[in-house]
Specification:
single chain, about 775 residues, alpha+beta, nine-stranded antiparallel sheet, five-stranded mixed sheet, 23 helices, 22 strands, about 35% helix, globular
Length: about 775
């Protein structure tokens, strides 16, 4: 028994082969990948482990790496003016690539072929035999293209990995990304039936068993062609291409498609159209058109926001693109509120919440419960469209697909890495641009060569960068080779802020929104613009008093003094529980506060860099958005954006943030310290929970007792843990049931209303922090 105070014995040396809790290093790395790096849902882990158990059952495949093959085929038009030229590319990527790599539009997705599109005369176009030929040709082509992988699905193939090592690999068919029309073709079923379950086409939302290869083959044994067509929706004389490959079932491999099933399908093609039909049935054509014009006006009057597409004519345009539907989702609920029943608003809310939940980068079991709750509420509130006579029944395949998302997410993980929007953007680089560079005569061969060269260039760049061969400039490399370069630390001839080659920018409407290719940083950071606007060009103030006059804010000198008092206190602590952190210094006489009325540098914008992996972002999930505060934007009107301000609270989401509007960004030097600042006016949060109809928090402008807006000066950059700008916020007026005056435009949207919604639908990051 050691005496009290005796130091403990040193720990026994640990064996380098002691992987306690795990059998070996491979098991530890697998668990780390599942639960930390990739954060797979439990169902997906079990599914993958089941596949490994199947592979491990063959002695020849033990120890092999399983590589799921993800496919996507989608027709695209390269030119309408020259004869409606269409191509049918087939894309491939592997399931071992992380989701962030897929969504950052790097080179994980490649074109592996172009499918045939048979032509015939109008006389035979609708002939059943020709249609059957086209369908079976589609499956036969897929089988032929993938035939080279078939041997590696049973016996290991030797492949060289990125780390330079050779590994034994077993391939398998994974998710197939397809819209509904192509899912019908893939699953060999009749249109208006579900490709995943056996629910009857007249009542798709009824509970039913899932389709599978074994179930279909059993039906083939007992049913006739006509019975299978009418009672089960099966096209019995077609053979799915997956039947030629081991461990493959076409009904299990079809991935969810957020873009076509939810955004363009359930939202735009269904609910938006139903709103117009409801208004016509309820008010008649003339009054309905008047209401629709007001809805369009409300949409046009929404304030600008980085990445938010502007609808200059409302939503009344002929050709809808996927980005148009995404943009309309962000502003549509406040636009219709007051013109439609509460049940309609709640229907849209449930659908939008479903869409944003399944679009999240990380989905947990709690998220799956929220997804199921959103589906239940959607089914409950959409009944208003049936009881009002807008639609007789809801047996719609794309709406019905919402019921399968939770199951498919458990199989394949977060759907945002498998959405067809990934290949929609790839069409530009892989099909349309190569076609434009071709001679237009027998262009397909030329396009294939172009894609081959692009892939080789991308691979060469990765190799050269990994060996440090692209540092410096071409001239510096030559001088260094000749021994004529004294200083090797020369600038690079490539802009580090430029996106990698072949990467889509996906900027909407030219707004200042960009992805960041730097490493992951969980703490948000805001910085002012790099340059000060020219005094002669913008006539911005250059002193405190001049800035006070420009902003019509006589209290600015006093605000700066109180700001300096807080910053120069030796015991400066910020009370995170205060409604406004800034009011602490108002108990101090102004005479006790430092005075500064000297020079200032005024900036038109600032940029916020934060972690937002659910939105368009870089490999590390980082995103940069610009916050504007300028007297003249796009040579039209002034623009002063709203922001979320970090209050220093430990509370997650909007309860730990304040909402404010930036009047100006500026900086000044006091006692040798530069203070980057923002003048903001505040909003008060109304109520202790979001609005029950829209699901959005409500705020109103804050005023002093003398009815003057509450202005404060805060840090514009991350200096302390509180009282700093986090990221941009977007507010939408609460229009109620009043028609919007014609003189209200987006430029006065933040000045003309008494209350606003904090728009949680403006992007996925805001949805996560403002729900």
């Amino acid at each position: 028994m050691p005496e009290i105070g005796t130091p403990p014995l040193p720990p026994e040396p640990k064996s380098l082969n002691d992987w306690t809790l795990f059998q070996n290093r491979a098991e530890f790395k697998t668990a780390e990948f599942f639960y930390i790096k990739n954060q797979m849902p439990a169902g997906q882990i079990y599914h993958l482990l089941d596949l490994w158990d199947i592979i491990a059952g063959d002695p020849e495949t033990i120890g092999s790496t399983f590589v799921p093959i993800i496919l996507r085929s989608d027709k695209t038009t390269v030119s309408v003016a020259t004869g409606n030229n269409e191509y049918y590319p087939l894309y491939l990527l592997i399931g071992n690539v992380h989701n962030n790599v897929r969504r950052a539009h790097r080179d994980a997705l490649v074109v592996i072929g172009f499918l045939a599109m048979p032509k015939t005369t109008k006389k035979h176009a609708d002939d059943p035999k020709f249609r059957k030929f086209c369908r079976q040709l589609f499956h036969s082509s897929l089988s032929r293209i993938l035939a080279s992988l078939q041997p590696g699905m049973s016996k290991p193939d030797i492949a060289k990995f990125r780390d330079g090592h050779f590994w034994r690999v077993i391939y398998g068919l994974g998710p197939y990304i397809a819209d509904y029309e192509e899912q019908v073709l893939l699953a060999c079923i009749v249109r208006f039936w579900c490709p995943r379950c056996c629910s009857h086409r007249d009542n798709l939302d009824a509970t039913s068993v899932l389709r599978c290869r074994e179930y279909h083959e059993a039906l083939f044994e007992v049913g006739t062609y006509g019975e299978l067509w009418t009672e089960f929706g099966i096209v019995a004389d077609l053979i799915p291409f997956t039947n030629n490959f081991p461990r493959a079932d076409i009904h299990e491999t079809m991935a969810p498609d957020i873009l076509h099933q939810v955004i363009k399908g359930a939202f735009k093609d269904h609910l938006v159209d139903w709103v117009e039909k409801y208004l016509v049935l309820t008010h008649g054509r003339t009054e309905a058109d008047r209401i629709l014009d007001d809805i369009d006006h409300r949409i046009v009057a929404v304030a600008s926001f980085s990445g938010l597409r502007r609808f200059l004519q409302g939503r009344g345009f002929k050709q809808w693109m996927g980005d148009d539907s995404k943009a309309l989702m962000k502003v549509y609920i406040p636009a219709i509120e007051g013109h439609v029943p509460t049940e309609v608003v709640r229907t849209f809310r449930a659908l939008l919440e479903f869409c944003y939940l399944v679009r999240q980068n990380t989905i947990t079991e709690r998220t799956l419960d929220e997804i199921q709750d959103a589906v239940s509420r959607f089914h409950q509130y959409r009944e208003v469209f049936k009881t009002s006579g807008v639609i007789p029944m809801f047996s719609l395949p794309r709406q019905h697909s919402l019921m399968h998302y939770a199951h498919v997410i458990r199989l394949f993980g977060a759907p945002n890495g498998l959405c067809s929007s990934i290949t929609e953007s790839k069409h530009i680089k892989a099909v349309k641009e190569p076609w434009r560079r071709s001679s237009k005569y027998k262009a397909l061969g030329q396009m294939l060569v172009t894609n081959q060269y692009l892939s080789q260039l991308a691979a060469a760049r990765v190799d050269f960068e990994s060996h440090g061969m692209l540092k410096g400039t071409c001239l510096s490399a030559e001088l260094e080779a000749l021994g004529m370069l004294d200083n090797p630390d020369v600038p690079n001839d490539e802009d580090p802020n430029d996106p990698p080659p072949n990467q889509a920018s996906n900027l909407e409407d030219g707004d200042d929104l960009m992805i960041d290719h730097g490493p992951t940083v969980l703490q948000a950071h805001t910085r002012l613009a790099r340059t000060v606007p020219s005094c002669t060009e913008t006539k911005r103030a250059r002193s405190v008093l001049a800035l006070a006059d420009e902003l019509h804010l006589p209290s600015l000198p006093a605000l700066i003094r109180r700001f300096l008092y807080e910053q120069t206190r030796p015991d400066n602590t910020l009370d995170a529980l205060s409604s406004y952190l800034r009011v602490l210094s108002y108990d101090v006489p102004l005479a006790a506060c430092p005075r500064y009325e000297g020079k200032v540098s005024v900036f038109n914008s600032a940029c916020s860099r934060f972690h937002a992996p659910s939105d368009l972002s870089g490999i590390g999930g980082m995103r940069v958005e610009h916050i504007r505060s300028c007297p003249m934007w796009r040579n039209e009107f002034s623009c002063h954006d709203c922001v979320f301000v970090n209050t220093g609270s430990d509370t997650e989401g909007i309860r730990g943030l304040d909402v404010a509007r930036v009047r100006a960004f500026f900086s000044f030097n006091y006692a040798g310290t530069v203070y980057p600042c923002a003048i903001v006016c505040w909003f008060d949060v109304i109520g202790g929970s979001p609005d029950p109809e829209t699901g959005m928090w409500v705020v109103r402008p804050a005023y002093y007792a003398n009815h003057a807006p509450t202005h404060t000066i805060i840090h514009a950059v991350e200096i302390a843990s509180a009282d700093t700008i986090y990221c941009a916020a977007h507010l939408i007026p609460i229009y109620s049931n009043q028609f919007l005056p014609l003189d209200i435009t987006l430029h006065v949207s933040y000045d003309a209303f008494r209350a606003y919604y904090v728009n949680k639908y403006v992007d996925h990051h805001t949805f996560e922090i403002a729900s």
